[in-house]
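Blinded run. Sample ID left blank on purpose so nobody reads anything into the name before looking at the predicted structure. Input follows.
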Amino acid sequence: MLADEFGREVTGVRVSLTDRCNFDCVYCHNEGLGDTRGPMEPQDDEMTADEVVRFLEVAVEFDVDAVKFTGGEPMLREDVEEIIRRTPDELEVSMTTNGTFLPGRAEALVDAGLERVNVSQDALDPDDFARVTQSGAYEQVIDGVEAALDAGLDPVKLNMVVFQGTKPYLPEMIDHVASSEGLQLQLIEYMPELVGNYDWAVDTEAMHEWLAEQADRIEQREMHGRSRYFVDGGMVEVVDPVGNEEFCANCHRVRVTHDGHLKGCLNRNDDLRPMGEMSRDEIRETFRETVAERVPYYGEYMVERDGEWVVNEKYRDAPTADH
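Blinded prediction complete.
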């Protein structure tokens, strides 16, 4: 297993299959790359199924044990089922999706080997949902969640990005997962450093305090030091990376962009490394380099001075990877 110089072993990979999406969520950062949404038709720069599988086969050589497929919207790829079916057996397979394509395909995904799914759902009212996602697909998402549960993907995690526009929906979302068997809620901190609109950010410390008051039980998860709150029988997990040194110190993932670049940190694009023609040797070399040069974003790449996060001088003039 490979580890960086901070002792963080890489145990998982997050693979973007496309940057295309049928939603246009107001908070989207597209895996840290920014709003790069292109045409809805398949693009020539997307990794082929063979390339994705080849990368995963190499990742397994380094004892990586989990892969999460993402996008864009990964289910815009018609070969998602094939990719999952060909994924090495050593890997736990999960996917993040907006859910609109799960009806009619959820069973095939499970048959192919999908074990877990996260569905983006920020509101329970169609109008509220439309304002956040700039999509009228609310009913399809609800049907998609049901299809995932019916196919045996239990639990289904609902991803809710918490910012000023969605904060009022939080109590209703918590009640929803508490009263719905098989659902869990994952609250994801809004990331203004990737999206802008800093005034949209919420006070996550206050959110933790509020959740603690509601909770019957609290657990601390080893991965990223995440907090889990159990409220009236429902589980709510908080993903709060912004300014969080503990979160970055416990990061064990490497990311792969849709066009075949390795990315050591969500928050950085100066560490992108192309895998060339994606031969096994090129993948191995790039993977080793990416892991070796991974740096915790908060607490190392960004350091706190006088109450503000600034770029660590040792990285300011460092040569960037060839894009």
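Unblinding after everyone has recorded impressions. The domain at 12-296 is CATH 3.20.20.70 (TIM Barrel).
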